[in-house]
Amino acid sequence: MLPRKAVLNVKPYQPGKPIEEVKRELGLQDVIKMASNENPLGPSPKAVEAIRKYAGNINRYPEGGCFYLRQAIAKKLKIKPEQFIFGNGSDEIIGLILRAFVNEGDEVVVASPTFLMYEAASSAHGAKIKVVPMRYFKYDLKAMKDAVTKNTKVVFIANPDNPNGTYVTRYELEDFLKGLPGETIVFLDEAYFDFVEEQDYPNGLDYLGKNNLIVTRTFSKAYGLAGLRVGYGVSSPEIIKYMEAVREPFNVNSLAQIGAIGALKDKDFLVRSKKAVREGKKFLYSEFKAMGIRYVPSVTNFILIEIGSKSGEVTERLLKKGVIVRNMKAWGLENFIRVTVGKESENKRFIKELKKIIL
Ligand SMILES: Cc1ncc(COP(=O)(O)O)c(C=O)c1O
Questions:
Q1: Which one, 91, 104, 128, 323, has the greatest CB density within 10 A?
Q2: Domain 5-43+267-358 carries which CATH code?
Q3: Whole-angstrom Cα Rg for the chain
Q4: Average pLDDT of the chain to the nearest whole number
Q5: What's the pLDDT tens digit per position in 285-340?
Q6: Average pLDDT, stretch 14-33?
Q7: Topology of 45-264 in CATH?
Q8: Are 140 and 166 in contact (CB under 8 A)?
């Protein structure tokens, strides 16, 4: 029994280990996860409250078009409701753009290392993937533009990027968008948008309409709803129309829709989340400096740190102490680990265990 040819080339995505799995497998009681760039403060309380109130209705199918969530976000972002598509996490939007626009053999351009789903989903769709290396942990947008041909259907850019934690500036993005072929879709993934505080960081929504651009965002990170799976894409009504045609009818479940509406109202939670990340990074940077560990300064909620040739072993030893971080081998960054900023107590515990291992 053989699958489609394209499926044979797919490198399955390896997610960070869940807390329960580590507890079960290693017989540990107290495990912290700093491996999947989630929000350590928990979910937005307003989201939880909204879900509790709604829970008695889950015998019904959800609203397929996310009507109320669509209205709420459209109002907040001052963009027409028909310019949105919602997904089972923003991950699903990656698959939808490929399903709607990429034929087998069409080209897509991705950077390396970046979010692994772009390549995994593109290869599952039989796309021809052009990989452009990052330069000093940043997008080389000039090289990416050079890689674009008239057969390029999609260019993927995460801004800020995962796992690098770096960002593309307003000037760089504008320069990149100028003169791209009309048929090329720019997929601008802003999963970590809410954390960025830099003045020259562009808001992708400002560029809608100028190119074939789709901007994606998620409730998984700053809003603390990773377990619900809800994200969205914003683009031209025409691009959205084709993506809607290939979307599953009930792809975003009703609790996710209700929870996301609750989270949108929770300004206080967003402020607290950003503060925790800002302060957590300050603490971690100073500890890394004191330990002589090099790191890539991050505009988001995780940090790429250089551990050296023993990074795999360090990850394993941290795991045995109940601290889950991400080994970067699957990204080709053999000497690095990526750590998500946790609560104050988690950041301290991570540093304490790391010191025991490497000093
Ligand atoms: C750059 C980037 N895009 C998208 C996602 C997917 O997020 P979601 O939970 O919305 O599917 C992630 C998750 O880690 C990410 O790092």
A1: 323
A2: 3.90.1150.10
A3: 20
A4: 96
A5: 999 999 999 999 999 999 999 999 999 999 999 999 999 999 999 899 999 999 99
A6: 90
A7: Aspartate Aminotransferase; domain 2 (3.40.640)
A8: no
Q: Which atom of ligand 1 is least distant from the CA of 229?
A: 9
Domain boundaries, the chain: 5-43+267-358, 45-264
Ranges of beta strands (E only) in 252-316 are 295-296, 302-306
Q: Is 202 in the pocket of ligand 1 (CB under 6 A)?
A: no
Does the Cβ of 300 fall within 6 Å of ligand 1? Answer: no
Predicted TM-score (pTM) of this structure: 0.97
Q: How far apart are CA 115 and CA 194, in angstroms?
A: 18
Name the residue type at position 146.
Answer: D
The CA distance from 60 to 67, in Å, is 15
Name which of 129, 128, 130, 123 is nearest 105 in CA terms.
128
Structural tokens at position 70: 């669509």
In short, whether 189's Cβ falls inside 6 Å of ligand 1 is yes
Residue type, 332: G
